[in-house]
Design brief:
This protein is of the alpha/beta class and about 375 residues long. It has one domain: Ribonuclease Z/Hydroxyacylglutathione hydrolase-like (Metallo-beta-lactamase, Chain A), CATH 3.60.15. Helix content is about 30%, strand content about 25%. The protein contains 11 helices and 13 strands. The strands form 2 sheets. It has a 7-stranded mixed sheet with strand order 6-5-4-3-2-1-13. A 6-stranded mixed sheet has the order 7-8-9-10-11-12. Helix 4 crosses helix 7. The structure holds fe (ii) ion (2 copies). One fe (ii) ion binds next to helix 6.
């Protein structure tokens, strides 16, 4: 298991990440600059195999309900580099929230049909507020599937509050569930899994995890089943988190489908890595999940480059939501990009992109 990263190495990592992120997360001009001026790396392409089809259901993309309340909590605690386990997150008195609570969460349910007809059932992330997640799991039939141990495994994309702190809800239903976490998970994360409480951050888990935890690193493409892989990125992330992993599916007759949590690695970096490392990576058919571009609804002109870059990849369906931001979705649609519409139900604020309860089916 991962030892705690020291604050020094984290801050050092942030500096390296800023440089790498300049090329990756920033946008088209920097990515083009990189691909034209830097020598091509020789990498053996990995054939991950194929699946027949894919169903991706948004369980919850509403991580918190009021950006100002969230940002104020971070500011009061000392800023974006403060450890997320030491921030007193506001839980009550938020009119727009779920039962007056600002915390929601991110979680996605995936069914991937293998070529032999077997359907793999996968839960990506565990949300933040366990009560909200209990409700959403019940409404979408996930609670029942977990209780019957019908879900094959859970993947935690990264350790962030909104993707991981609601773990008690999953554990309450299925404490033995096999889990995959990215390399960089802090000891705090493993402790929370095992039942430790963090009262300052208002997070606990009274149902310790009893199943196997597999830590995946970035040294190789991690093929879990034919046509289903995870790629891990060594990225330093705000609120003292390190590392994110995301799915690569290869759907027969369609192409590559990427499913992400927050995508702190940068959507362009992610697509470039897939092109560079995976057979068929030049044909990215769909992207689904958080794209982390304007989560707080602010805008930097360089994000326009990033939106332009999507054209280069010829993505047919963009099932974005969560930290993608509404401004980004509006600009993508204006640029002619195929953003899949949602239905604005179950606390999702707008139908501009896939929201809670919405589904992307690829067959
Ligand atoms: Fe997130
Ligand atoms: Fe995140």
């Amino acid at each position: 298991m991962e030892k705690d990263f020291s604050r020094r190495s984290f801050v050092k990592g942030m500096a390296v990440g800023t440089l790498a992120g300049y090329f990756g997360a920033a946008g088209l001009s920097s990515t083009v600059f990189k691909s034209q001026l830097l020598p091509k790396e020789k990498v053996n392409l990995v054939d991950i195999g194929q699946i027949k089809g894919l169903k991706i259901k948004v369980i919850s993309e509403t991580s918190w309900y009021d950006n100002n309340v969230f940002l104020n909590d971070v500011k009061k605690a000392g800023g974006l580099l403060v450890n997320q386990y030491e921030i007193p997150w506001t839980r009550e008195g938020v009119k727009a929230g779920y039962l007056g609570d600002n915390l929601g969460g991110f979680s996605t349910y995936i069914e991937a049909e293998l070529m032999d007809g077997k359907v793999m059932k996968i839960l990506l992330d565990s949300g933040w507020n366990p009560h909200w997640m209990d409700k959403r799991f019940k409404e979408e039939g996930i609670a029942e599937k977990l209780a019957k141990k019908e879900i094959d495994f859970q993947v935690i994309s990264h350790e962030h509050i909104d993707h991981f702190f609601g773990i008690e809800s999953t554990m309450r239903h299925y404490p033995d569930i096999p889990m995959y976490v990215p390399k960089g998970f802090y000891q705090d994360g493993f402790d929370l899994l095992k039942g430790k409480s963090f009262p300052k951050a208002n997070v606990k888990n009274d149902h310790p995890h009893k199943g196997k935890v597999t830590v995946l690193d970035s040294k190789q493409v991690n093929v879990l089943y034919p046509g289903i892989a995870l790629m891990t990125f060594d990225v330093p992330i705000i609120l003292r988190v390190f590392g994110e992993q995301a799915f690569v599916f290869n759907v027969k007759d369609k192409g590559i489908v990427l499913v992400t949590g927050c995508c702190h690695q940068g959507i362009i970096s992610y697509m470039e890595e897939v092109r560079k490392k995976i057979v068929g990576g030049e044909k990215i058919y769909a992207v689904q999940g958080g794209l982390h571009i304007s989560p707080f609804e602010d805008w930097d002109p360089q994000y326009d480059d990033l939106i332009m870059a999507f054209n280069k990849y010829g993505v047919q369906k963009i099932g974005c939501n969560h930290c993608t931001g509404f401004i980004t979705a509006e600009k993508m649609i204006k640029a002619g990009l195929p953003v899949v519409k949602g239905t604005a139900r179950h606390m999702s604020k707008r139908d501009i992109y896939l929201g809670n309860g919405d589904e992307l089916v690829i067959t």
